[in-house]
Design a protein that fits this description.
Protein name (chain B): ABC transporter substrate-binding protein
Number of domains of chain B: 2
Number of strands of chain A: 2
Number of strands of chain B: 9
Largest sheet of chain B: 9 strands, mixed
Order of helices and strands of chain B: HEHEHEHEHEHHHEHEHEHHHHEH
Helix content of chain B: 40-55%
Shape of chain B: globular
Structural class of chain A: mainly alpha
Keywords (chain B): Signal
Organism (chain B): Aliidongia dinghuensis
Number of helices of chain A: 21
Oligomer: heterodimer
CATH superfamily of the largest domain in chain B: Periplasmic binding protein-like II
Helix content of chain A: 55-70%
Strand content of chain A: under 5%
Strand order of the largest sheet of chain A: 1-2
CATH architecture of the largest domain in chain B: 3-Layer(aba) Sandwich
Distance between the termini of chain B: 84 Å
Strand content of chain B: 15-25%
Shape of chain A: elongated
Distance between the termini of chain A: 42 Å
Structural class of chain B: alpha/beta
Chain lengths: 445, 346
């Protein structure tokens, strides 16, 4: 979820930075490394409280959460004896009979300890049907197949003869006699896992260890990532197209009216995102304000589908994100002396050419800062698509929330977060490379 | 002498306060909110407080088990009785999130429906997973799931809950599978494919909902022509004068359950509260406010004919109905949910 109030500050400082960057010759936006000539140690002391705060309340939790994407010991915890028994197994054929009795004992013990469910869910990721197999085997071993009442004989399984357990399990469900089942178990008793990251990349591991792409109808996250970037890009372009003239107009206004218009931009910015989205939910439906107005003006015959549709998502996101463009752009634009443009015109340039060749390049740092801010904020959007979009308009954050809250698959949620973070970081790096290669065209150049 | 006595009294009072201080919080009951919470407040919470002397605070959540899991994992359990759907009762139990129910301590155990008794959850009430329509906008009443899928004779969008549960069963019934065979068919890979193929037909017309209150809103505003819904919500809307009607044919009866999060410091009081709510009188009082079916068969005798008409499990409804197969969903839910999430995301 994006929090506008917390993002406001980086926006403003970014804008200031770009204003300062203006003066410097040939410095690409956002990239200027300012060399400190003052007391380095004093500066470090000044930032120490913030650095400590960031470390404790931001970096450590984020890293801990992300580590869940690859570190998942639930099966290790639930199947300690099996892990030991399978330690010497080479993965071919069936394991020795003691693995069968260890697995049977672990299933009963894990069930009593309440760790079986999560382990089953994890194993099921690697091999569909494992959950069913484990739960059925549990009821079979408990002798409490009717599933009500307390589990029966506690350690019945452990007392059985090892060979007898093997025969019994295989007779109960043929899958216990299949090497693939044991390969999955042997893989997953290792706490280090790739299953979540692979799934986030639309791949899976077969029981024998090969990595293969998921069937077309199951692998969706890469296309959802693409959709996330696409929606963000469309929103960024629209915000730039709308925000640029607005900011320009704003700088041309007399001081007093400027303040009033700036207020009009800022008041929605300070309003809760939820409130603004709720307002769109009133404005956009079939029988809502927009459709009724358009129908009564005979602009359209049948009401437009604006809600539960991508149009609604984009409209609301553009509305929410416009201040993130206007503020940095306005800061940059108000620092550009209008005399440059006038000088160009007086020297015989066409007014449009003067604008395009003299004025516009000077605003480039502001556009870049605003666009980057809008794009990266948009990538993490959750509330707007969730409330205004259809099933095909949800962005990656929606699935992170879905796996965190609804299905409690925290490994996959963490893997998707890693995917989003990595893709964003990659994009930022590409941006920096492009920006570094092409210095801001400036008047002096 | 009097001074010492006085000191003793003060000391005893202080000691009592201190010993209570550690545990002195009201029993925390958490439900799904809305009209359901109002009904529980007047049928369960208020009378239980005055009859037992145990203080109870009721609050609401929207069903995310992540909160319960975070509490249990962090050993800071501040919820004592939580209402969950059948989806969660088995899964959460296997994951060690809930206390096991000691069925010897459940007073009305013998009168309870079989489906209401699980390892970690005690049934609270039954509701129907049905579909509804706006009687003003849809002139010819639809009769069954075949009509729900028929966008020619019943044009317009279809409201559906964004979850595999229910929709797959509905799709199979629309494809001609008899209610009694639905779970048998769905247990086979071919049956799953068949259900998804049938859902594909409806895909362009689906408008998803996820909160129980949405279907009635969609139907009243005319945004959708037909919508799957929880029976209780539609009946409540009918009572408020909305022109909605339910198609009971092919309904899936399902239960809500009470669970006790593992490590609750007030397990005994929690069990007392649960026992109270499944008593015949309380069940009848609750269902007079929140339409649905009782878990306690003795409550049936205390219900009005009007109420009985709206049960998800009356004899006449039961002929064409099925009961949600909790065990099936416990075993196959992971796979089907995953496939459904991928299907819906495209």
């Amino acid at each position: 979820m994006t929090n506008p109030s917390s993002s406001a500050r980086p926006g403003a400082s970014l804008a200031l930075d770009t204003v300062r960057a203006q003066g410097a010759k040939r410095s690409p936006p956002l990239l200027r490394v300012r060399r400190s000539s003052g007391d380095v140690r004093g500066a470090l002391l000044l930032i120490a409280p913030l650095a400590a705060f960031m470390l404790v309340f931001f970096l450590v939790p984020v890293v801990m959460l992300m580590s869940r994407a690859v570190w998942d010991p639930v099966v290790t915890i639930a199947f300690p004896q099996t892990a030991q028994a399978l330690g010497s197994w080479n993965g071919e054929g069936l394991p020795r009979p003691d693995a069968f009795s260890a697995a049977a004992a672990d299933i009963v013990a894990a069930d009593l300890a309440g760790t079986l469910g999560e382990a089953a869910a994890r194993l099921n990721q690697d091999m569909p049907g494992m959950r069913q197999l484990l739960l059925r085997t549990r009821s079979h071993l408990d002798g409490a197949a009717d599933d009500d009442g307390t589990p029966g004989a506690d350690d019945k399984a452990r007392q059985r003869d090892e060979q007898a357990v093997e025969t019994e399990l295989v007779a109960f469900d043929g899958r216990w006699g299949d090497a693939a089942t044991w390969q999955v178990l042997a893989n997953d008793v290792q706490p280090l896992t790739l299953v979540y990251l692979l799934r986030a990349l639309d791949h899976e591991r077969t029981p024998d260890g090969a990595i293969v792409p998921l069937p077309r109808d199951e692998g969706v996250y890469l296309s959802i990532l693409g959709r996330t970037f696409w929606i963000s890009a469309v929103v960024t372009v629209l915000v730039t197209l709308l925000g640029y003239p607005l900011s320009y107009w704003l700088t041309q206004l007399p001081k007093r009216r400027q303040r009033a218009v700036l207020m009009a931009v800022l008041i929605p910015f300070w309003t809760s995102i939820l409130v603004r989205i709720a307002a769109w939910m009133v404005v956009l439906p079939r029988a809502g304000l927009v459709n009724r107005l358009a129908t009564s003006l005979h602009l359209i015959g049948t009401p437009l589908e604006l809600l539960y549709d991508r149009t609604g998502v984009i409209i609301s996101m553009v509305h929410i994100l416009i201040p993130f463009m206007v503020l940095p752009l306005f800061a940059v634009m108000s620092g550009i002396p209008s005399s440059y443009q006038r000088a160009a015109i007086s020297l015989g340039s066409h007014p449009f050419e003067a604008f395009w060749r003299v004025y516009a390049p000077q605003t480039a740092p502001g556009v870049a800062a605003g666009a980057l801010l809008v794009f990266i904020s948009a990538l993490g959007y959750y509330v707007a698509p969730a409330l205004l979009g259809g099933a095909g308009d949800q962005m990656l954050s929606y699935y992170i929330a879905y796996y965190t809250n609804t299905t409690i698959n925290w490994g996959l949620a963490a893997a998707l977060s890693v995917l989003l973070l990595a893709a964003t970081a990659l994009l930022f790096m590409v941006y920096r490379m492009v920006a570094a290669r092409r210095p801001v065209a400036s008047v002096e150049a | 002498m009097r001074k010492i006595l006085w000191l003793g009294v003060v000391g005893a009072v202080l000691a009592a306060e201190a010993s209570q201080g550690a545990l002195a919080r009201p029993l925390s009951v958490v439900n799904y909110g809305g009209t359901l919470a109002d009904a529980q407040q007047s049928a369960f919470v208020t009378p239980f407080q005055s009859s037992s002397g145990i203080e109870v605070t009721a609050s609401s959540y929207s069903g995310e088990q992540a909160k319960v899991k975070a509490m249990v994992d962090g050993h800071q359990v501040s919820w004592d009785v939580v209402e969950v759907e059948s989806t969660d009762v088995g899964r959460g139990c296997d994951s060690g999130m809930y206390e096991r129910i000691d069925w010897a301590k459940v007073t009305d155990a013998a009168a309870l429906d079989k489906a209401a008794k699980t390892r970690c959850g005690v049934g609270l009430f039954a509701w129907g997973n049905v579909f509804a329509y706006n009687t003003k906008l849809t002139k010819t009443p639809p009769k069954n799931w075949v009509d729900f899928w028929d966008t020619k004779n019943f044009p317009g969008k279809r409201g559906m809950r964004k979850s595999a549960r229910g929709n797959l069963e509905f799709a199979l019934m629309a494809d001609g599978v008899a209610p009694g065979d639905v779970y048998k068919v769905l247990a086979t890979p071919a049956g799953v494919d068949r259900a998804f193929k049938k859902l594909d037909e409806l895909r362009p017309n689906i408008q998803w909902w996820d909160a129980g209150a949405q279907p009635a809103q969609f139907l009243v505003s005319g945004d959708v022509a037909l919508s799957t819904a929880f029976s209780g919500r539609i009946i409540t809307a009918q009572k408020n004068g909305q022109p909605l009607d339910i198609v009971w044919n092919g309904a899936i009866a399902d239960y809500d359950y009470w669970v006790i999060p593992k490590g609750s410091p007030m397990k005994d009081d929690a069990m007392k509260f649960i026992n109270y709510t499944i008593g015949a009188n309380q069940q009848a009082a609750y269902l007079a406010l929140q339409p649905g079916g009782p878990v306690n068969s003795q409550a049936l005798a205390k219900m009005s004919p009007e109420q009985l008409k709206n049960l998800p499990n009356t004899p006449e409804h039961a002929k064409a109905d099925l009961v949600n197969d909790r065990v099936f969903w416990d075993e196959h839910g992971d796979d089907l949910d995953q496939r459904f999430a991928a299907w819906a995301a495209r």
